[in-house]
Amino acid sequence: MSIFSQTIIDFWQAPFLNGDVLYSDEVFTLVINPDLSEDRRVMVLETSEGRVMAVLTPTLADKLNLYQRQDLSESSFRQKLNKAGVTLHGADYLFYFSEAEKNLLLQENLEVVLRRLTEQDDAVFSEFQSSASEQDLDDSYVELDHWAVFGSFEQNRLVSAASMYPWGNSQIADLGVLTLTPFRGKGHARKVVRSICKYACNQGYEPQYRCQLDNQASTLLAKAVGLTLFGKWEVISPDSTN
Asked: Could you tell me the residue range of the domain that residue 146 belongs to?
């Protein structure tokens, strides 16, 4: 039985299990799904238990010359992708709260230095953004017009913010977080992420935290927040030639 909610399990099983199974063994499963969107016409999900699931459209399956009863593995599948000029975007870690951790979160009291931000905070938020590097702004994707935005303050200055938006027409809310460099390491990010996640849970959403595999600081934050690794997710690169 999974430690994660059924909402999370169902969301990820839908694209990877709905379709024609081309190959399946104890480690690797490959499925053809005609309902995939163009920007997700091939995806790979490796769960924290080590299972690898891949899914692609019938058109791509034809280009890769895939057919049933073919002996496949993750490595041979990736070789076929490379040979066909299909490039995958760098993998993201996917983190979620386990049901047990979510229950602890819902019982936690919010810090008084934290609050939800609204459009009335435009000037405060603009000052916050102007104090961050372009790279940090791009990596974090924290926006005031997202579905929910929370901020942490120090001496009335916004120093850390997290925002969320519903992801993939589901009850999952994807989040980003940014803390200004001089204020990192003080617990601001952990508090603001837990606060916005509690809000999302109370609204019936499952918080989702994604980060690149090489972003060690972000991975450490996910664990400090109480999130658990669900898996690694790859999707076709926007720059892919096929």
From this structure: 98-226
Tokens in use for 226?
């109480």
pLDDT in tens, 136-175: 999 999 999 999 999 999 998 999 999 999 998 899 999 9
Question: Locate tokens 């995958």: which residue?
Answer: 88
106-140, pLDDT tens digit by residue?
A: 998 876 678 899 999 999 999 999 999 999 999 99
From CA 188, how far away is CA 18, in angstroms rounded?
41
Token digits of residue 125: 């938020």
Q: Position 67: which residue type?
A: Y
Examine residue 198 and state whether it is found in any structural domain, yes or no: yes
- Specify whether the CB–CB gap between 176 and 132 falls below 8 A: no
Q: 35 CB contacts (<8 Å, ≥6 apart)?
A: 15, 18, 19
Q: 172-179 and 52-56 as β-strands: parallel, antiparallel, unpaired?
A: unpaired
Residue 236 lies in a domain: no
Q: For residues 78 and 109, state if they share a domain.
A: no
Query: CA 2 to CA 235: how far, in whole Å?
Result: 24
pTM beyond cutoff 0.90: yes
| Residue pointed to by tokens 């019938």 | 58
- On whether residue 184 sits in a domain, the answer given is yes
Q: Which tokens is 58 given?
A: 């019938």
Q: Is residue 237 part of a domain?
A: no
Spatial neighbors of 22 by CB under 8 A, at least 6 apart, are 30, 31, 32, 61, 66, 67, 68, 70, 72
